[in-house]
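Quarterly update, task 2.4: glutamine-bound model.
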Amino acid sequence: SRTESTILTTSIWNDVHTLSRGIKPIDLGVGFPNFDIPAKVRQDLIDVSEESDYSVHQYAKGFGHARLTTALCELYGPLLGQEQLNSARNVMITSGASEALFVSFMGLINPGDEVILIEPFYDAYLAQVLLAAGTPVFVPLRPSSDRSNSSADWTLDAAELEAAFSPKTKVLVLNTPNNPTGKVFSRPELEMIAGLCRERGVAVISDEVYEWIVHDELSHVRIASLPGMWERTITIGSAGKVFSATGWRIGWAIAPAELLNGPRYVLQLSGYIVCTPIQEALARSFERETALLRQQSPECHFKSMQRKCQQKRNQLAAALKSVGLHPIVPEGGYFMLADIREIMAKLDLCSDSSEVKDVRFMKWLLQQHGLLAIPPSHFYSAQHRSIGENYIRFCFFKDDATLDQAIKVLQKMA
Ligand code: PMP
Ligand code: GLN
């Protein structure tokens, strides 16, 4: 099982690159779209690259390029119930959501502070909490039955969550829509979590990078918008996810100025300022898309991305069902878990127990069929890995040719 030192020195994202060498897999693994980013967003970058105004090519002032922090306040202020956000004090621009998470953990946690992680969690949280000398405390989402159909069936046990709080609890990490289950936390679920955090004086780091990809007309509820939560929440987002441009490496943290004090110190001592021209391009994209969103235009990128993604979700879910890889249909995001128990039994892949089940299945799928998927046990502590190892994670935000090829492989395999 993975020890603290392997958690700090290895990563599933590097492992999949190494394992894929020489294979050129059909890639439903890592979470990024393998098709063109929106043309209008690409055009914003072209325009900025031709901009003669020196200021968009030099250091940004403060903790983010002003045009971008202003555009983010304009969009997110009302959504967070904070119309009066101050772009200089309440927003920090980072290198991806990854760095926003890192500086938040480093800035908030002192050695020995406890951090509640809801499982499955995006793997970076655990390594970053350990680096900050925090103590992780794990609470799993539990599927309501052995045959769960939807990410909505994966819920927290309120008593189990409450029992995870102690006088040392400093932070709870929330991720909605969740990677890898696709769970979109409902308002009552968030109220339950918020109630405990308020009562125990705990801060929330809310990772909402998939906020615009919520399916079936559900709504994305921001925990910072609930009563008494703004003052204790850092809300984190990612331009990589919002505009399907994961290589642009821009993320942000939005919070009350006092909560950002520690994270700012860490940021100014590390990367300090991120790429100004990319921030300028994103500012232009956000300004346009916020206006389209307010006009309820179907042209709004946030809406068209969601429609496209939902259609791909439905296609993959139907294909998985037909081959006996029972899917947990996600309410949000672009990942889907599929239950591997039946197929592993059928293919007699269960006899070798030298490795965790889903890792074994992932390697078999890659080596025998050239199809890349992610083993969700990496999103669990050793304590609860037995829940996650029964599944495999597919990313379905891929072009039609890739999805078609993957579906053919799955059909052949069944
Ligand atoms: N949080 C979650 C839940 C993620 O899935 C990812 C990976 N895309 C990140 C954070 C990191 O995002 P970024 O690429 O902006 O660093
Ligand atoms: N967030 C991406 C995923 O879950 C991975 C990003 C990375 O390569 N670290 O697939």
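Highlight for this quarter: Residues 107 and 341 are 41 Å apart (CA to CA).
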